[in-house]
Amino acid sequence: MVYDKKTAKQTAKSLLQINAIKLNPKKPFTWASGWKSPIYCDNRIALSFPEIRSFLAHKIAEQAQKIYSNDYVIAGVATGAIGIGMLVANFLNAPFIYVRPEPKSHGRQNQIEGQLDNNKKVLVIEDLISTGKSSLNAVKALKKEGVDVLGMMGLFDYGFDLAIENFKKENIQLHTLSDYHHLIDEAEKSKFIESEDIALLKSWRISPYEWQPN
Description:
Distance between the termini: 32 Å
Strand order of the largest sheet: 7-6-5-8-9-10
Number of strands: 10
Structural class: alpha/beta
Number of helices: 7
CATH topology: Rossmann fold
Radius of gyration: 17 Å
Largest sheet: 6 strands, mixed
Mean pLDDT: 91
Oligomer: single chain
Order of helices and strands: HEEEEHEHEEEHEHEHH
CATH class: Alpha Beta
C-alpha cells in the first residue's frame, strides 16, 4: 500500500529517469518465480545516484517514523535491500541487520547478519515486492529469533493479488513509496513508454502468471 501519493509519483519518476525500469515485450524477462514479464524493475541502480538514493531513503525513514515512531532495528532483505536499508538506518540512527535468503553453509551458518536481541522490534526494508515470497521468507527468519516484526517498507510494489494474500496470511503490514499504477501513469505522462506498450503492460498486470508474449 502506498502511503503518500506525492511521494509515489516522485519515486516512479526517479526510477524512470535513471532507467531502473527495463521494458522488452518481444523478449520478456523470466523472474525467479518462473513468470514471464515484459517489464523488469532494478531498484539497485538507484544506489549509484546520490541524490535519488538519499531521497528514497529519507522518504522511507520519514514514513517509518510517522507509522512506527522510533526504537526498532532496521532489517534489509539481502541482497537488493541491504544498501537502501543501511541508508534508512542512518537517517533513523537505528541499528542495522540484514537477512539472507537462507543460512550460510559455512562458518556460523547465519541467516541473519548483525547484532539482534530477541526482545527487539524490527522493521523490514525491501527494494521490490513482487509475489512477496522472498520478502516474507526474511520475515519468517526474523520471527524464528523471537523478535517482534512491526511491518515492512519498500521502494516499489507490483501490487499482485498473490502478494496481498501472502502478506495477509503472515499478518504483515506493507507500505511502499510507489507501486505499479503510479509507475505506469508516470511512464505514460513522460512518454517513456509507447501507447501500445502501455496497453500491454496493463493487460499483463491482470494475470502475470498466465501471460505469454505474442
